[in-house]
Design goal:
Length: 836
RNA sequence: GCCCCAGUAGCCCAAUCGGCAGAGGCGGCGGACUUAAAAUCCGCGCAGUGUGGGUUCGAGUCCCACCUGGGGCACCA
């Protein structure tokens, strides 16, 4: 059985000699704070870089996942500082949200109490964790000074027509008693609490993110190579652009119902002649509008039935198709054929036009429906497969058009183009594009969020709260049971808060009582970091120009769509508003993996949780950070059962001891030092830079370990502790180690005789001449197998190397009299002799 | 079903352009020091790169097919 680290199984280890992490932490933590080491200078003397970690939600204390993510971000921030950049590395809290409200209800408190207590705990933990953050820019999205500008942002979108209210069936979480955005529904369940989501017809606020679908998609080209490919793939998938055509069908008059036109969206206009029936979404208004009196009762009953299905049930793909005939007929605009109109729940009200032409021969869903209700199936593309009417398997591949009048004989792609032309000429259709992406439902019926800054007036309608009246503050007299979910926002019951004079007419009016999705808060915070104390604007355009966009963003892949898509959208809106000169907020993205234990995510129910605080107590901050970084590439998961924080501590102690052993004075000229050790030092530093640029932090640690080993050997069994090359190596170790073990590295740096912070040291200059080797081992292969090695000068010529290789003992032995067919020479490293 | 990513030693992981499969660590084994242990130091690599083909003088690396694991999308017309 696989072992799992748990508190119960771990007996205290003895600490490695000399190195005492508790003392180092107590010494250097306060010293960094006192000397304000990590705030950017922002005076333009150095090139600026902006690195941000996805800010935390203040639920309890920091956990192992935070420890990993922030360790990664800090490597980048510290590396860039060493490379001479002026680095902005801020911290803040995503401090609105449901957990605070639920805690407040349980404890009869105000959500702010729980929230700010947790923030204080987390802030203390962040400081202990030794992160190189600029604390002066700290922000909390639940501060009125912040959410004032979130409300301002809402009004920008409102004024641009990008924020609107509509009545629509929306996702409703019965447990949390609030609506959810599409992005927050995972497999038909609430992303937060796992409760199956139901549909509810409500009037809700939306952001028109679909207007930006094309740009969100196309601008990803610029992110390729800098963002993880899978995140881009997920966003592409989510936006789901599909090209096709709108085609108008006339629905014939029937009884009292007049003739009317209904448009469908199809990606396969080539199959128009194969449409044998017509389907509208059962839950769309269109269904009730079309149904004849005779069939109305059937439809009502069917709609009732559909309404009671959960999303999970409705989406089961193996479910038998259901639907009702509406008593009407649609006319095919090309063939003139009359086809029956049905309502069914497999057609979605909010995708395309909520109506489709059904081509059962070439669409599996339509075929399933046709077979259930015994509707005709007519193949119009000869794909070479068997007849779908017989097999029950729709054919979607390429083929030759048949039974299709003017399209007969064309291939699929040609037929699509021709069909679009034909409907275009007839004035009954056109090419179009459709998206899976839906508008962003942002209103929430909960308390702990930024109130939507709209006032509802009977005379004037929707009136935006004037900018100077912002923020619309949350009342501070609501607590405990006042906040209990009740199907509408708790704010609605606070009459004193709701009643307000209309800003337009002065008459009696009421505030909008919904609050904003917390993803609105987090969609713009990286802009706020550039001027967090600005009281005149959401952000100072000058400051944004200096720092933004974020050069390196770090966070978990769980936000691959949600937060990242929303931030990209908001950035584009602010760009269109003329407030930003860039259109993407995050130039580069790094997704750190998860921290697992025993192959599974840590969880209470599995009992495999590892407490960060206890790990820090036991091994020290540096050892935990080092363990996180060294375990694997940043984007891979770390399994705590597979790693050894004790081993990390051992290495840190080993590195740290080097500093005390160095016997040459500060400034000793390394040129006089041992060349072999110097070559290792300079090679390591040069490689580390390339590896860091490539985010291979685990390899940087491995290379640092090598350098430590080489230095140890030089002290004990080489030129000795007094050699200046040993000092040079130890200083390089301190600098490299400062990326992941800041306390240990800082102490080393000072023991080595330096006064300033190690993170303000310069990245060591690499002496290229030390990287050049005099001789190199050339490998001699016979038929691809290594048969000999030769020490040769690096600049050996091809001919000479060939001769020496052919004369090599191993070659003669291996050839054993056989002749030579070809000799491939790659001077100076390799010769491959191909025998005859 | 479609789309992405990954399979290297008992384990975590390295391996610029296709060029000696092993840098680093964990574990294991052996040794030095010790009355003993801890700590420290030294030494030892045990797999031929998921499978099968292909290209090449040469493949962990490139191509094709497949297997396994992880993730995303999925009644989206």
């Amino acid at each position: 059985m696989r072992s799992v680290n748990t508190e119960a199984q771990t007996a205290p280890d003895a600490q490695p000699t000399g190195w005492d992490f508790a003392t180092l932490e107590a010494t250097w933590g306060p010293w960094w704070e006192e000397h304000d080491v990590f705030a950017p200078v922002d005076d333009g003397s150095r090139e600026r870089r902006y690195v941000a970690d996805m800010f935390p939600y203040p639920s309890g204390d920091l956990h192992m996942g935070h420890a990993e993510a922030f360790a990664m971000g800090d490597v980048v921030a510290r590396y860039w500082r060493l490379r001479g950049y002026d680095v902005l590395h801020p911290i803040g809290w995503d401090s609105f949200g449901l957990p605070a409200e639920n805690a407040a209800i349980a404890r009869n408190a105000h959500p702010a109490e729980w929230t700010y207590a947790n923030i204080a705990t987390q802030a203390a933990s962040f400081k202990r964790y030794g992160l190189s953050l600029d604390w002066s820019r700290r922000l909390h999205t639940s501060d009125p000074e912040y959410y004032r500008w979130t409300q301002w942002l809402f009004l920008q979108l409102y004024r641009r027509g990008l924020a609107y209210r509509k009545n629509s069936p929306v996702n409703w979480c019965p447990k949390d008693q609030t609506v959810l955005a599409n992005e927050q529904v995972v497999n038909g369940a609430c992303e937060r609490c796992g409760t199956p989501v139901t549909k509810k017809a409500l009037n809700q606020w939306y952001f028109r993110i679909t207007d930006y679908a094309d740009r969100l998609l196309d601008d990803m080209d610029a992110l390729a190579g800098h963002w993880p490919e899978r995140v881009l793939a997920m966003q592409r998938n989510w936006i789901g652009r599909s090209t096709g055509a709108h085609v108008d069908f006339v629905i014939e008059a029937a009884g009292s119902a007049p003739e009317r036109k209904v448009t469908v969206f199809t990606t396969r206009p080539d199959t128009l002649y194969g449409a044998t029936f017509f389907v509208v979404a059962a839950d769309a208004d269109l269904a009730t509008e079309l149904v004849t009196d005779e069939h109305a009762q059937m439809l009502t009953a069917y709609r009732e039935e559909v309404k009671h299905l959960s999303d999970i049930e409705r989406q089961a793909t193996d479910r038998t198709k259901t639907g009702v005939f509406l008593g009407r007929y649609a006319v095919n605009p090309l063939s003139g054929e009359r086809i029956p109109v049905w309502a069914a729940d497999y057609v979605l009200a909010d995708y395309g036009t909520g109506a489709i032409m059904a081509v059962p021969a070439h669409d599996q869903r339509d075929l399933d429906f046709a077979r259930t209700f015994d509707l005709p199936v007519r193949a119009v593309v000869d794909t070479g497969d068997e007849d779908p009417a017989v097999t029950g398997i729709a054919t979607a591949g390429d083929g030759t058009l048949i039974n299709s009048g003017p399209l007969d004989g064309l291939a699929k792609a040609e037929a699509i183009a021709r069909a679009v032309e034909l409907v275009g000429e007839a004035g009954t259709g056109e090419a179009t594009v459709n998206y899976r992406l839906r508008d962003w439902l942002l209103s929430r019926q909960r308390f702990w969020g930024a109130p939507i800054p709209i006032i509802h007036c009977e005379t004037c309608g929707e009136v935006p709260v004037p900018d100077e009246a912002l923020p619309v503050r949350l009342p501070d007299d609501m607590r405990g049971a006042d906040l209990a979910p009740q199907g509408q926002s708790p704010l609605a019951s606070n009459e004193a808060w709701v009643r307000v004079d209309c800003p337009a007419c002065g008459g009696e009016a009421r505030r909008d009582t919904d609050t904003m999705d917390t993803f609105v808060d987090s969609s713009w915070y990286v802009l706020r970091y550039t001027s967090p104390h600005d009281t005149e604007a959401a952000f100072d355009p000058e400051a944004v120009r200096r720092w933004a966009p974020v050069d390196q963003y770090v966070g978990g892949v769980e936000h691959a769509i949600l937060h990242l898509l929303y931030s990209r959208f908001i950035t584009k809106v602010l760009h269109d508003e003329g407030l930003l000169d860039f259109t993407e907020p995050f130039t580069a993205l790094l997704n750190q993996g998860q921290v697992l234990n025993g192959g599974r995510a840590m969880s209470k129910s599995l009992g495999n949780g590892v407490d960060l605080g206890q790990q820090l107590d036991r091994y020290g901050v540096d050892a935990i950070r080092l363990t996180m970084v060294f375990a694997s590439p940043p984007e891979d998961d770390v399994d705590w059962a597979d790693v050894s924080p004790a081993g990390s501590a051992k290495f840190l102690a080993r590195a740290w001891r080097l500093a005390s052993d160095v016997a040459s004075p500060v400034g000793a000229d390394p040129a006089a030092g041992d060349r072999a050790l110097r070559a290792v030092t300079h090679r390591t530093v040069a490689d580390a830079a390339a590896l860091l640029d490539d985010h291979k932090f685990n390899v940087v640690v491995a290379r640092t370990m090598e350098l430590v080993n080489a230095t140890r050997k030089a002290i004990d069994a080489g030129p000795g502790a007094g050699d200046p090359a040993v000092r040079e190596a130890a200083e390089a170790v301190a600098i490299l180690l400062s990326l992941v073990g800041p306390y240990t590295a800082e102490d080393m740096w000072h023991r080595l005789g330096h006064d300033g912070p190690v993170n303000q040291a310069a990245w060591p200059t690499v002496d290229e001449s030390l990287l050049v080797q005099q001789t190199v081992t050339a490998v001699v292969q016979v038929a691809g197998k290594v048969r000999d090695r030769l020490e040769v000068p690096v600049d050996i010529g091809e001919d000479e190397l060939r001769e020496r290789a052919l004369a090599a003992d191993g070659v003669t032995r291996s050839l054993d009299g056989r002749g030579v067919r070809t000799v491939i020479v790659r001077a100076p490293k390799l010769v491959n002799i191909v025998p005859a």
